[in-house]
Amino acid sequence: MRNKFLIIIGLLSIVLFITNPNQEDYSNWVGEQMKKDQNALIEIGVDLAVVPYVKENTTRDNWYLFSIYKTEIWDGKEVVAIGAFNQFILDQKEVSGKVDE
């Protein structure tokens, strides 16, 4: 029984490691979220302005099985997202927090 548990934990760790999204994936995900239900002009603006801004203003804490992304936005605020299994989850508590200066 213990060996089966260790095998499952090992396989899960391997899957998490392989599907840990990189910073490029995160920037593209943010752009896709902003383009939902928008017109073509806004989609072009997102691709030209937002995605490069996110790339330049995001730090990634890579924990190998998952990553934590912190994007500094205007007014000293930051958006925090967790990436795992090629997916991202926004930390709603952190969206309105202040960035340390």
Automatic annotation (TrEMBL):
It holds the Pfam family DUF4359. InterPro entries: DUF4359 (IPR025578). This is DUF4359 domain-containing protein. It comes from Guptibacillus hwajinpoensis.
